[in-house]
Design a protein that fits this description.
The chain is α/β, with parallel strands linked by helices. Helix content is 53%, strand content 12%. It has a domain at 2-210: Spore Coat Polysaccharide Biosynthesis Protein SpsA, Chain A, CATH 3.90.550. The protein is globular and about 60 Å long.
Amino acid sequence: MIIVILPSRNEARNIKNITKIIDIGLSSYYPNVNSLILNVDSSNLDNTASIFESSDTITSKKSLVLTKKKIGKGFNIKTGINYGISNNFKYFLTIDSDISSIEPYWIKAYLDRLLFFSDDFVTPIYKRNRYEGNTTNHFSSPLLYACWGVDIQQPIAGDFAFSEPLARKILNSFDIESDYGYGVDTMMTWTALATSSKISQVLLDRKIHNPSFSKITDMFSQVCLSTFYRIYKFRSDILTNIKSENYCQLDLHQNLDIDYSLRPDDKAIEQLQSFISKFVANFVNDSCFTSSKVNEDIWLNQLSSEVLKLLMSDDLQFDNIITMVNAILPFYLSRVINHIDWVASTTPDNTSKFIVEQKERLASIIKANLLFE
C-alpha cells in the first residue's frame, strides 16, 4: 500500500497539475498496488483543497484540512504520516505541492527503491540552479558530512520516500516547534541517519517550484534550530563516528544544471542586506561586520565553532541553542550574499568544486579540533 502525501498552503494554481502527474505515475507504474494521494492542506487565501478534491484521478485520493492554529509544513507532514500509519500504508512518499516540473517517472524513481531494494529513506538529487540551495550547500549537507560522514546532496529537498518502520520513528521525532515548520525536512533526514536506516539517493531532473529566497531568514532559522538541536541530541553517536577510522572516506560530487541560471532579484538581496545591518547592530554589535566580508573561511570557522560547542557540552539548555541560532544567522545571510556575487563571476564547474571542497573543509576542521581536545 502506497500513500503519497501532498502538503499544501495556498497552492490553488498548481495542485491540480501535480495531482494529475502523481496519479499518472502511480496508475502507470503500480496499477496493481493499493495507492492513495493524500492532500493535507492549511490554506487561508484560496481553495486548494476543493480543487484537489474535484480533480479527476484513477488513484484514490483524500483531503485533510488543518485548523488555522496548525500552520507549518511540519504539521501537514505529521498529519499525513499519522493518517498513513493509522490506515496501514507500507510505503510513504512526500512531494512538495508547488513543484511545476514533476514528471511521472519521479514517482517510480522514489518508490522502486522502497519496493524492490528495501531502502528505508530515499532523497532526491535534483539538477540545481547554482544560485539555489544556499541552506543546503552552506549548512545542511556539509553538516551531515561532518557529523555522519555521509554525502546527502539535498537533505532538505522536501520530497522523500520512506518505509513504514521509519515513518513511525519520524512520527515520534517531532520534538520542537521548528520541526512543525521548515525544520521538518532536516528532522526527517537526521532521524533516518540516527536510526541507522538504509538510505539512498535518486537522480532526477530540474526541480522548478515557487521562489523561496524571500523566506530565507525564516527558513534558515528553523532548519538551523532543528539541526543544532539534533547535533546536541545525538552528540555521543556523532563523536564516535567522527573519531572512527572510516570517517568521511567518500568520493564527493555535486549535480548542478549548467544550462539553467537564475540569480535572485536585486530587491530581495537588498532586503537581506538591510536586515543583516539591523540584526548585527542589535545583536552582534560588530561595526566591522558587513555582508561582503563573510567569506568561506569566516563562515566555516563560525559554523564549526557552534558545532563544537554542541558536541562538547553536556549541560546546554534549549535557550542556549536558540541563542546559537541567532548568533549564526547574520553570518549565514552575509555568506549567501557573498557567495551569490562570487557565483556570478565563475563557472558551474567551479561552483560544484567549491561546494564539495566546503564539505571536506568543515569536516576536517571539526575533526582536527576534536582530536586536539
